[in-house]
Every structure is written in structure tokens, then in C-alpha cells.
């Protein structure tokens, strides 16, 4: 009984013990807070990658002449699979922006000839099927019920699914961009486009690209691209003017800076009809349940039907979004593991604090150890006594750390705002500091995810560290010769 | 921790005897089986390559209820012998029997239990735990002996015993005081209460008045002798003071690690 009683007395009688508790508290608090923030950031990054990708991406490798150049046979085969919710083709190409701004004025010309422009010159063109005409007709059918106050959602057309990522990107609030008038009809002519000329085909730009090129809705851009003329067997360069219908915000910086969406038919026309589609994007009924299996089945079926190329060099690929971005997802996982390892060093430091304090206490309490031995304490009892002190340190420190760490992780935004506005005294600047610069990140808030199992693991880790480091001085106390200890003054 | 030795149920409150009279000889005690018996005990320490022998083959029997003074000059080996008797130190050679059994052939836990329940210590420098109150210090042997559950079950009994002892030593107003708030004499009384909590068979006192002024020392001794008389435990008192030694019926004179003389005052008719 004396172990718990005396260890608590020793703990409360000496203020130096607060350092041990404080060390563990700070360790657990910092670990929970940082891990929650990093998990939040990584999760957001993963979501951003996920948002811009479909469940399954099929690249048929059309280099192989046996693979049909038209998307229809592949689409109908894919859509026939019971697990597939929708499938649609994408056409990807590249281009140079050769005319930013409304007119090719002197500034634009200088800008285009400057190497500073290189960051935004090359863009990826993505042609998507929006079927504007069909959807306008379907939307018109909803007008009457809506007049009667019925909130009918715009009809979904199967092929538009791949634009739903685009739809989300178009609907997202943007600070630097210019949102399209109606996200459901992204390539409709912008209201301020000139009506005197022949209407130009509309494009939607990433918000960063729009901002860098100082464009707005109704601005015109010229895109230049090269395509191979199959008859002349040489490369020809096409230029075409487009009108900017607005911008999208994907939350993935590369996309927002280097991607331009347009109607697939329009892009195919711009490329002289040489290309119809690059890949087919597939959405499944339930990806989490059987994504891998369906992917495997589609791979076999399409290869057997000759709709994707076989063979080692020109193999067509059917990949899940995780396989498609395997590298970056692997990097995210690695980052988390490395971070966990690095942050665990904080707990090691806390363990060292406990070690230092207990070592000091064993020396200080040498006489007490002798007294306890003289009146019947066993070496194991003395060992337990000092381990109990570390146990109390860990219990109080880890409990407080877990409570405050979780609280701080859940309330990080108000805490950050409060700190940013109140840190305006020396040595901070008078206007205060911005701890989390929202312009630097793609999120308007600090994303945090508190994982209960991570909190439990951190608390257990704190106990393990404290007891492990306490074992050394505790063993020293237990092995002490009681007579030597009694003589100590 | 289990009690390795059978004890009477009413051991905590032995029958009261007439008050102490330090000037009159103590009543005779019939010798029985020795409580502690040492045979051929030698103790040596290594200093560098040399071995220094402190005790040169001690034979000694301590009988129940005996009051023994252990006198001798500094460095004679009194304290070393006392520590060996109290199982705090292991002899280099020889045997130490406690309650008719070789103590060093017992397990660590059993030896610890003997120190806890059968042997009481009173030190010159009191050796109290400064974080605990007087009452808690007196209760410490019970806390060591019992598990958390066992202690909470018998807490009332233990506290009753400790309070009774401290009351007899005049410490009732000081129960909640901590050692730094107590005088030397008071500290020694708390140490005595702690040593006697389990009603041990032997009390080993290492110059209990060595750190007290003569008036306080006399009072402390008076209380100690009174308790010895009431409880009839064996007491070994290490002292330099011949006057104190004369109060004990048996006196052991130690010189150079040997018992030079073992004298017992004859029982008056």
C-alpha cells in the first residue's frame, strides 16, 4: 500500500516533479496537435487528388492501330458492366497561350516574348462532354414545375458525370477567379462577350491561370497547338481564339494553373478531327466495396474485345484512381510515417525529463530508501515506489496533454485567429502576425483530424517512455544497500 | 505480505504493568529459546586489496524479554553487530538465527517481513520520512506490510494502535505535524511508535539518546523502558553511557570486534 501512498506524497511534495509532468504534457499535447493538423492536411491533399479523378481511368493505347479511334465501342462495353454507374470520354491535348488579354496590345506582346511567361504559357486542354444542347432542353422541362415552387434538381445525363468534378470545381467559391454564370452550363457564352462578332467557343480556365494572365469573364485568349496532318504527314500549327466563360477552382494548384476545359467536340475540331478521345473515365456504383475487382474485370473484358491494346510495349491500361496516382499517395503515406517517427522524439525527450528528475529524487531520497528497507520494504517494493512516481507523472501529463491537445486540435482555427490578432506586441510587428496565411494554402481553414486511435497510441507511448526511462533510476534505488543509504546525510 | 510468525491476537495491547523506576533493578525473566542467536559471526570489509575484519567471531543469544546494553568504544563494532542482528547487513561468515531459523537462508521477502514485524529499529538520527506526518510515519510499517485492500480493511485497527502509542509518548497534539516541525525528542518518540507498531519481539536501539540533551534523553529512555516492561520485548541498546548501561540487566562489552565481557546483574531475592 505504501507504494501508491508514498509515491503520491513524493510527487506532490516536490515542485520539481511538475517538470516531469510538464514534459509529458507538452510531448503529448504537441504530438496530438501536430499529428491532427498534419493528418488533416494530408487528408485534404488526398481529397484534392481524389476530387480531380474518377474511380477508374482507362487509357486504351490507341497507338496500336487495331484499337478503334472512336470512343463509342469502348464506352458501350464499359457501360454494360453492372458495377459501372457511368462512363465518359476525355480528350487531352496541349497548347500554348499566345494571346492573353482582350487585344494583342504592346504589353501582351512583350509579356508573351518574356521568359517570365513560361510558367503559364503551356497549358493542358481537356475536352469534356457536357452536351449543352441536350441539357438545356432537359432543364427547360423543369421550368414549369419550378414555377410552382417545386425544387427539381437539374436532370443528370449519364455522360456528364465526368464533368461533376468540373462541376464541383466550378461551384467552389473563388477569391481570385471569376466564376462562370451557371456551373451547370459552363461553356455557355458569357454575358459580356461581344455580340457583334461571330460567337467564339467558350473555355473555362483554372483560377490561378486567370489571375496570372489578368483575365476575366468575356476576355479572349488565343491558343496555339500543333497537330500532325495524317495526309501531308507533317506537323501543322493551329491557332484559334476562345472566349473565357469563367474559372474553376480544383484546390489542386497544378490544375488551377495549367488546365483549360472546353467541349470535347470543340477540342476535336481544333485538332482537325485527328483525335476523338484520350481516355475514358468510369464512375462505379460503389468504389470502396469492389473497385479493385471491377477494375480487374474491365481490364480482362476490354483486352479480350480488342478495345485496349495488349502487348508489353503498347499496353492499354485500366487503373483505379489509387493506382493512377500511386506515387503521390505512397509519398503521402511515407510522409505520415516519417512524421510519426520524428514526432515520437518529443516523447523521448519527455522520457529523459522523467529520467533526470527520478535520478535526482533517488539520490535525494537515499536515506528514505534505507529507512524503508530497515522497516521491511523489499527491493521490489522500492522499485515499484519509484515506478509509481513515473506512473503518476505519465498519468497526469498524458491525461492533460490528451485533453488539451484534442481541444486545441478541434479549436485550432479560433485559437490561430486569436493568436494572430493578439500577437502585436514586441518583438512581433504592430499589425500582428498571420500564423496561418490562407493565401499560401488552398484551404481557408486549418484542416485537422483527431483520430482516437492515434490519441490512444500517443498516450500509451507516453506511458511506455515514462516507465522505460524511470526503470533505470528505479532499479538503482531497488539495488541500493540499505546501510549505505542509512548512512547518507 | 503475510505474517511468517504466529502471534497472539491481543498482541497489540499487552497488559499494563506498574510504571518504570529507572533506579530499581528490573524483574527477572526466565531464559527461553533465544529470539536472535548468532554463531561464529565475522564481518569484514574490503578496502582496496586489503580485507579489514570488524567482527571476529561473535557468539550471542538474545533471550525473550531481555534488556541488553551493548557498550564499547567507537569502532568496536557495536553498530555493525546491531545491523547484523537486525538483518540489515549480512555477515561474511557465521549464522544468524531469528526465531530459531537461519535468517539468511530465507527469501528476501521473508527477511523483509521479519524486519517489518519482528524487529523494530530506533536510530540515533530518528530517520523519519519528512513528507509524512507523525501519525503517518508511525503507520508506515503497516502500510508496507499490507496491500491496499488489506490496509483499508484494517486501517482503523492500525490507526488505533498508532494513536495509542503516540498518545502514551505524549505526542497526541503533534499527530499531524511533520518531522521538520518537531523537536529532537518528539522525533525520537515518533520513531519509537513506528518501531513498536507491530509489537515486535526485538527492538534494536542504536544510541537513541545520542542526539538529545540529557533531560530529553532521559525522558525518551524512560518511555522506552516503560514500553519494554509492558510488552516484554527483547531490547538491545547501543550506548556509550555507562549510567544507561547500568539500567540494563545484561551488559555486553565490545572491544576490537569481540565481546570482551557479558555480564548479567543477578536477580535480587
How can the largest sheet of chain A be summarized?
6 strands, mixed, barrel
Q: Kindly name the structural category of chain B.
A: alpha/beta
Question: What's the helix count of chain B?
Answer: 7
> Could you spell the SSE succession of chain B in H and E letters?
EEEHEEHEHHHEHEHEE
Overall pLDDT of chain B = 83
Tally of individual domains of chain A: 2
Largest sheet of chain B: 6 strands, mixed
Strand ordering within the main sheet of chain A: 2-3-7-4-6-5
Oligomer: heterodimer
Alpha-carbon distance between the termini of chain B?
45 Å
**Class computed from helices, strands and strand pairing of chain A:** alpha+beta
Helix content, binned percent of chain A: 40-55%
Radius of gyration of chain B: 18 Å
State the separation between the terminal residues of chain A, measured CA to CA: 27 Å
Q: Which spans of chain A of ≥5 residues are poorly predicted at pLDDT below 50?
A: none
